[in-house]
């Protein structure tokens, strides 16, 4: 008989409490608020002028085709829909699409791609540190810690000025050692909206190459900033110069398939043979986590991209979402000089110059919900709510 130890005796009742994810908790607060005029700019989904998160017309048509033609629900394998990844190559990689050192596979959303990529890097080098700007997407540090790597945060953004702390960023990257990982937002930075310009990307690239860092690009909003190719500038610049690189990509936003969890992971190594060996590890890790990725959303995206007419219509719908994001940004920026920086940023998110107390007062007095940091979804409200939102925010800044 085994001797019972303290660790063996512990059960579910002994688990420590878990701190609630603040953004998930915010969704619960919004749902519990009975006020009919509430505004939720905390949740990260695109909303149109009517305040709805629509299903794209091309996705509805693709789903109908899938319904009409799909003959089986059998497994596709750990790589998921291979044609889906093949069609994404030119959209994501541009002129690097033909590089046989780069391989991609389908994942459950961008989050799944991030976890899978970091699991691979941890298997290769458990001592690697992950250099990341602060603030960043709240799930980045927990994912890094979960795989056993150490996140090292550096100041990325000066909220009061609405500006990137670029010198601090470069200094932090210069402190990295060969094999460390530089986690970078490809575009439409979440939560700040403050993207590197082309010259800043070049300087970051130079430091990454000089220090022997491995760039890990998280690109979840391609097409929501300036355009598909423009938003991939930094990613492709890194591909020009780096022999090792990881990319986590998401279709959840630019195809508006949030709940279907559609993403992909891309790996580049110095040779096709090394990439193949790395992918063997990726497939094994994926097998241990989710075995096979879900098919429906990726199949719908694949149908859109595989049909020239649907693809062109998707580009029009994507441009419509991007135009709304940018027009709302300009509307908010024009309302007060202190908000002018919002018009110079990209994507769905920015950070208002509000204290935690001011954010909570907006919640109490005006039923306006956002993260306590002041991070808000620029298109989290319908057109009819924008003026009330702006007035309340300016009132809070003046208080």
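^ Assign residues to that structure.
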């Amino acid at each position: 008989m085994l001797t019972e130890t303290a660790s063996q005796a512990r059960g579910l009742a002994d688990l420590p409490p878990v701190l609630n994810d603040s953004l998930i908790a915010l969704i619960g607060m919004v749902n519990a608020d009975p006020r009919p005029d509430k505004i939720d700019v905390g949740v990260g989904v695109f909303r149109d002028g009517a305040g709805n998160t629509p299903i794209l017309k091309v996705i509805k048509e693709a789903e109908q085709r899938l319904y009409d033609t799909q003959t089986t629900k059998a497994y596709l394998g750990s790589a998921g829909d291979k044609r889906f990844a093949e069609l994404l190559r030119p959209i994501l990689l541009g002129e690097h699409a033909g590089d046989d050192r780069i391989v991609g596979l389908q994942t459950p959303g961008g989050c799944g791609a991030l976890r899978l990529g970091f699991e691979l890097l941890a298997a290769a080098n458990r001592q690697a540190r992950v250099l990341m700007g602060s603030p960043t997407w709240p799930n980045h540090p927990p994912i890094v810690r979960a795989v056993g790597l150490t996140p090292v945060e550096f100041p990325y953004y000066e909220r009061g000025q609405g500006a990137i702390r670029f010198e601090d960023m470069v200094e932090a990257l210069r402190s990295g050692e060969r094999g460390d990982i530089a986690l970078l937002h490809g575009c439409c930075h979440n939560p700040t909206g403050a993207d590197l310009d082309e010259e800043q990307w070049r300087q970051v690239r130079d430091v990454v190459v000089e220090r022997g860092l491995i760039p890990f690009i998280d690109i979840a909003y391609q097409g929501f900033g300036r355009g598909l190719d423009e938003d991939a500038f930094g990613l492709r610049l890194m591909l020009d110069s780096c022999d090792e690189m990881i990319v986590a990509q998401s279709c959840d936003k630019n195809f508006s398939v949030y709940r279907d969890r559609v993403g992909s992971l891309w790996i580049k190594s110095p040779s096709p043979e090394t990439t193949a060996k790395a992918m063997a590890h990726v497939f094994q890790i994926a097998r241990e986590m989710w075995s096979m990725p879900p098919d429906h959303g990726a199949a719908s995206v694949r149908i859109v991209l595989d049909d020239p007419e649907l693809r062109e219509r998707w580009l029009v719908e994507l441009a419509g979402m991007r135009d709304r994001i940018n027009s709302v940004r300009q509307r908010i920026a024009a309302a007060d000089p202190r908000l002018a920086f919002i018009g110079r940023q990209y994507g769905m998110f920015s950070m208002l110059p509000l204290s935690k107390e001011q954010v909570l007062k907006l919640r109490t007095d005006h039923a306006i919900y956002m993260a306590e940091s002041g991070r808000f979804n620029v298109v989290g409200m319908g057109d009819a709510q924008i003026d009330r939102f702006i007035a309340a925010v300016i009132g809070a800044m003046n208080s």
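Residues 1-9 have pLDDT under 50 and may be disordered.
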